[in-house]
């Protein structure tokens, strides 16, 4: 639930802890370089980073974005109390990650106490929150898909309407081309007839085709 935890003095990370090997030191370093209030939460990538500032030390833990953030706050409150009680003096002069190895037991103990040994009622509440969140996301996804399907249906109808218009225009164009072709045939026939008549008139000696061609 909380894969990465850091304790910093100013912008110097003096201790870090990860139960599964997750390394978010770069993300934490970027967050430390930005202004922040005593207690706040910020989202970066797939994680929610929770801040807790106490005795000039900053305690930061990262939890998955889909996890309830209340456990992160409770975890940091307990960790900061234990840390300031036993390691406050050492933290004043600690250098970069110099306390990481010697403080694993403290991180482990607080994590097990807060996260792994949570009361049944809290566990049920957390599972209900996760279920509610998943249901909300599913409904939003379904609504989004419904909108996509509606848009697709509208586009399909528009495409069918456009296809029908195109087909009608094609039929009209075909009819116009046929009419133009028939007119051209008629014109060519008339021209040929006129030329033949002119030739016959010359041969027969007149436009009335007399006297040579008619007896």
UniProtKB/TrEMBL annotation:
Question: Which positions fall inside the V-SNARE coiled-coil homology domain?
Answer: 120-180
Xref: CDD domains:
R-SNARE
Keyword entries, A-Z? Coiled coil, Membrane, Transmembrane, Transmembrane helix
Keyword check for Protease, yes or no: no
InterPro entries, per the entry = Longin-like_dom_sf, Synaptobrevin-like_transport, V_SNARE_CC
Membrane-crossing residue ranges in chain numbering: 185-209
**Gene3D superfamilies per UniProt:** 1.20.5.110, Longin domain (3.30.450.50)
Q: Which Pfam families match?
A: Synaptobrevin
Domain of life according to the entry:
Eukaryota
Q: Which PROSITE patterns match?
A: V_SNARE
Q: Please name the PANTHER family in this protein's record.
A: SNARE PROTEINS, VESICLE-ASSOCIATED MEMBRANE PROTEIN 9
Q: What is this protein called?
A: Synaptobrevin family protein
